[in-house]
Specification:
With about 220 residues, this protein is mostly helical. Helix content is about 70%, strand content about 0%. The longest helix has about 35 residues.
Length: about 220
């Protein structure tokens, strides 16, 4: 009876599943593309921080050590790059604010932590702040998410029929008050504008810096 030897590993090399091989190449390419996009977004953010929101694709390409045509392989145009950058920045900020809510042991502490984190992050770069607060779907979603976080942190402290309205109003006030300060001569320090915002939303508008924040009451 004829005996057949088991095939050696070297004899089976040619029998690689072509579908599996293609899938792996596709996955590697997708991972490389996402990594490259992230690198270009990082470069764009750095340039906006130093040079302002109107940086060109050519400048981004030069700072990345590549050509403008290569940048266009990853972003169809500047608007797509701006959208991706804005979503990246706002997503990281939203994650930090969610962490702030979890860090607070009381609703008021959660609000205080969120506002301080927002002010500190936004004030760290005027140019990036003005860039991400330009009207966009990403900004609208970010503000809606912030209002949701505020509502969650204050659940039970206000009647349900007032909570959503109050949360949306808080986000609008924080954003508008901070923008006004950013565009002013800044006679108030960062700490003072932060305390003013917190005092205003938690206990009403203060008359001077000596007023102490009160506690938000559910029967307002």
């Amino acid at each position: 009876m004829t005996r057949y030897a088991e095939p050696r590993v070297s004899d089976t090399v040619g029998f690689v599943n072509p579908t599996t091989s293609t899938d792996r190449r596709t996955t590697r390419w997708a991972d490389h593309r996402e990594q490259r996009r992230a690198e270009l977004i990082h470069v764009a953010r750095r340039l906006i921080h130093t040079d302002g929101p109107d940086v060109t694709m050519a400048a981004i390409a030069a700072a990345s050590g590549t050509s403008k045509s290569i940048v266009y392989r990853y972003f169809q145009d500047k608007d797509e790059l701006k959208q991706a950058l804005g979503e990246s920045i706002l997503s990281r900020m939203r994650d930090r604010l969610e962490a702030g809510v979890r860090a607070g042991s009381t609703p008021e502490e959660s609000i205080c932590t969120m506002v301080r984190m927002y002010v500190d992050a936004a004030a760290s770069s005027v140019n990036v702040y003005h860039f991400v607060t330009q009207p966009s779907e990403g900004l609208s979603q970010f503000l809606d998410d912030c209002a949701r976080l505020v509502a969650e942190s204050m659940a039970g402290r206000l009647p349900a029929d007032r909570l959503d309205a109050w949360s949306a109003g808080v986000i609008g006030f924080v954003n508008a008050a901070f923008r006004s300060w950013m565009d002013s001569d800044r006679t108030m320090s960062r700490e003072q504008i932060t305390d003013f915002i917190l005092t205003s939303i938690l206990s009403g508008v203060p008359h001077d810096d000596n007023d102490s924040p009160g506690t938000l009451r559910g029967d307002l």
